[in-house]
Structure formats: C-alpha cells, structure tokens
Amino acid sequence: MTLKEKCPILQFTDLGDERGKLVVIEGGQAIPFDIKRVFYIYDSDSTVVRGQHANKESEFVLINVAGKSKVRITDGREEYIVELNKPMMGVYLPKMIWKDMYDFSSDSVLLVLASTHYDGKEYIRNYDEYIDAMEKYKSSEERRV
Fold this sequence. Notes:
The protein is an alpha+beta fold. It is about 15% helix and about 35% strand. The chain has a five-stranded antiparallel β-sheet, with no helix packed on it. Strands 6-5-8-3-10 form a five-stranded antiparallel β-sheet. A hairpin with a 4-residue loop joins β5 and β6. The longest helix has 18 residues, at about 125-145.
C-alpha cells in the first residue's frame, strides 16, 4: 500500500444552503475513528513549522477550516505534500506517520481531530529515532502477514 493510500484525502459533504455553509464530520463515519481530542492551530506564519513528530498510537485528521497550510507526510520511505485549502477536505494520518505542518496563510486555522487523548509518551519527536522505530514497526507488520 502506498503512502497516499495509507493517508487519503477525505472529502466532506457541504450541507449548506442559502443561509451559509455547513460541514458535518462524525467520528466513525466521515473519518475512520472515534474522536477523543480536538485542537486547532492558528496565528502561525508562513515561516513556522509545526508537528515534526510521529505518534505511536494516535490517528489524526487535519482540516484547514480557514486559510491554508501544507502538510509533509512521510513514513521514512515515501513522502508527499498535501495542501489543505478547503474546509470540506482533510487528510487522514494513521499512527506512525511523520508529519510537518507549514506554510500557514495569515488566516489559517488548522483543525486537528485525534483518536486518542493527549499522552506525551507516545510521541516520537526525533526523526532518526522515528526511522529506527519504523524499521522495527514494519518488520513486525510483515511478520503478521
């Protein structure tokens, strides 16, 4: 499975009418997990890089509900960049995916939906440690198949 298949772009339905826009995102339906945590990033400028980590247990959906930003996604072998620029689109990030969020527009509000409550111990914040962990992770995944 390619990285783009593991981290698909999600399109949410716009249920708006003449009164305005309405996008509904339900855990376990529009996204592949139940939502345990919600946070958002705003007031970052185009020179700021956020994220710079992977999570051992958490899955995420990232949505720019205002403005735009980019997300560099990698599993240590493949890499791709997603521009989040529509409030009805998001990107799904399964566990053990490295993410860098950057190039924030001045009006960017990046909404993040997470499958777990915050636990700092499940973060891998050093890229070299992440690469080592991915080798072990991929080996264990291949043994299961």
